[in-house]
Design a protein that fits this description.
heterodimer; A: mainly beta; six-stranded mixed beta sheet; globular; B: four-stranded antiparallel beta sheet
């Protein structure tokens, strides 16, 4: 069975602080995909990143960066110099080759000015 | 490209009523899925389809039916609505091009069952 754990329910930071969201996953598949989605207060799901299980390179996109470590089954997400617009719920998800996603419970990020 | 569209955006039902949530995509994606989102539980897979004429159950299929007669459409039917089905429903389609397996989500349908 697949499982995704986001242990942090809510994180509150002041603008310009860095924030790291933890994601730990469990799977028996050798090929799998990891995702991060953002859900702003408006409710839509915004795709942020996809990672293949065979590609452990870390990735940076603007103020966002991701650290994928197969040895610890973790796929953590860091927002650098947070802004109020980053306030949202962030979901980590694990996908099989069939495109079915197992989501974590989500982490609410609150950025105050 | 409209992407993934869902109708209606909001719906209120009485217990026992039936209805169909519509989902359509114009990206020629093979895979489509339905999820429900409940507070504190993330999204859970209800049903999915790997192509026209092929559907299968996800994690929480009870009380829901699906069919896939075309590549574009994947409606979700509530047979006899119950208060436990109050939730936000998301439809998704998957881009299998070059094995990316990235899912694109519709805007969601907020359903309340009284």
């Amino acid at each position: 069975a697949q499982k995704v754990t986001q242990a942090q329910t809510e994180i509150s930071v002041v603008e310009k602080e860095d924030v790291t969201l933890d994601c730990v996953y469990e799977t028996r598949d050798t090929t799998y995909y990891l995702f991060w989605y953002k859900q702003p207060p408006s409710g839509e799901l915004v795709f942020l990143i996809r990672r293949n299980s065979f590609d452990e390179q870390n990735e940076i996109s603007g103020r966002y960066s991701w650290n994928f470590q197969k040895s610890t089954s973790s796929f953590n997400f860091t927002i650098t110099a947070s802004q109020v617009v980053d306030s949202a719920v962030y979901f980590c998800a694990l996908g099989s080759s069939w495109g079915k996603l197992q989501f974590g419970a989500g982490t609410q990020v609150v950025v105050t000015p | 490209n409209a992407g993934v569209t869902q109708t209606p955006k909001f719906q209120v039902l009485k217990t026992g009523q039936s209805m169909t949530l519509q989902c359509a995509q114009d990206m020629n994606h093979e895979y489509m899925s339905w999820y429900r989102q409940d507070p504190g539980m993330g999204l859970r897979l209800i049903h999915y389809s790997v192509g026209a004429g092929i559907t299968d159950q996800g994690e929480v299929p009870n009380g829901y039916n699906v069919s896939r007669s075309t590549t574009e459409d994947f409606p979700l039917r509530l047979l006899s609505a119950a208060p436990s089905q109050t939730s936000v429903y998301f439809c998704a389609s998957t881009d299998r091009n070059l094995g990316t397996d990235t899912q694109y989500f519709g805007p969601g349908t907020r359903l309340t069952v009284l």
